[in-house]
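Hi V.,

You were right to ask for the full record rather than a summary. Here it is.
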Amino acid sequence: APELIQEQANGLEIAAAAAKLLDDPQARAHIQQRFAALHQSLRCDAAAQAAAAISTLLAERGHER
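Predicted structure:
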């Protein structure tokens, strides 16, 4: 899917990009895969990562459990 920025982000361009995704199953599947990968990379179980980082920091400072 194209990246529509500034003057390209107008009604006609957005409608054309949306129509391509609606009409082309391969294009739709491709963008769904890209969004799923992006979602997964952003998600990354932030709470577990934060807990691990805090645990490491405490261990480095001698506050082990």
